[in-house]
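To fix ideas, we close by showing one paired sequence and structure record:
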Amino acid sequence: MLKNKKNSILWLSLALLLTAGSVAEAKNAKPTISISSETTTSFAVSVTQKKLKSKKTRLSFLVSGGDDDYSKLLLHFNGSNGATTVSNECKSPLAGRTIANNNVTVSTDQGKFGGASAFFNGTSSYLALNDHNDWNFSGGTWTVDAWVRVNSLTGERTVFSQKTDATNNIRGFVKTDGSLSLAVENSGTITSLTSDAGKITLNNWHHVAFVESGNDYYLFVDGVKAASLVSSVRPADLTGMLVVGYTDLADETAPFSGYLDEFRFTNGKARWTNNFNLAQKAFGYSQASVNSNKKLNSKGKGTVTISDLIPGMEYTIKARIRKYGEKSKQDSNYSSLKTGTTDSN
C-alpha cells in the first residue's frame, strides 16, 4: 500500500514537472505581437501566447505615442483664463528654455482642444524664443502647423516669423483676402507661395500647415493642399528670435489678431505632402495602459483594436497577459515591443 502511494506521488510529481515545462504561467508569459491592420486613428493588434496554464487570462497593452522627437516646440495654451505662462510641451523640450510673452493671454472663451487657447490682441501680442538649432529652417525639411481663429483681416496676420536681417527671413501669415501665404528670403532672393483667397474665414477655427520638403514647399488649410511650389531658395540659418504672432520686418509688422491653439514646430520631418486627416485631439506624448476583456482563443491567439489615436503619429505598443477573475493576480511583464504609424490620409 505504501509502495503504491509512493509510486502515485512520483508519477504526480513527474506529471507536474512535464506540465510546467510545456505550459506557461501568466506571470511567465512572453506574448508575440503584430499589427494586423491600421486606420487613421486605430491599430488592430494581434497577440499570440500558446500553452497558457490558466484560461482565466485577458490581454493588456501599454501604448505610448502622440508626439515624436521631430517635434521641437509644442504650445497647448491651456490654463486659467487670463494666464500668461506658456510652456513648451513637446516630447523632449529644451531644459531652461524661456518663452518671452508680450501681451499674449490664455483665453477660455475659445479653444480648439483643452478648453483654452492663446489670445493675440492684433496690435502688440507675440511670443518669442531665442534662436536655437531646434528651430533651424535651413535644413530644408520642416513643418509649422497650428489651429488659428482670426477675428480681423484689416491687415495681414502673422502666424510665425524669424529673421536675421531685412534680406534673410521667413514668415508664414494670413493675407487680408483670407489666403494663406509663406515668404522666404535668402540674401535678398525671395520665394513665396499663396493659396486662393477665402481659405481662412473670420471667427472660425482652421488648421494651417507650412511645409518644406527639400525644394518642395506646401501650404495646407484644414488638411487640404492649398498651394505648392518648387524652389531652390531655402531659408538661411537665421539668427533672430523665433516669433509667434508677429514679425518685426520694417514694412510688415502684421500682428496676429484672434486665437491660436496647438502651435507646433517640427524640424527634420515634412509631416504632410498630400491631403491628410485632421487630428481630433491635441498632439502630445502620453503613455497609457489599455486593459481589454478580450481573451485568447484555444490556439492562444487574440486580436484587439486600440483606437482614439492621432493620425500620422508613431506609437509603441507592448502587450502582456494578465490574470482575470482571481483574487491573487500575477500578470506577465510587458513584452514584445511593436512600433507602428497610423495612416495620415
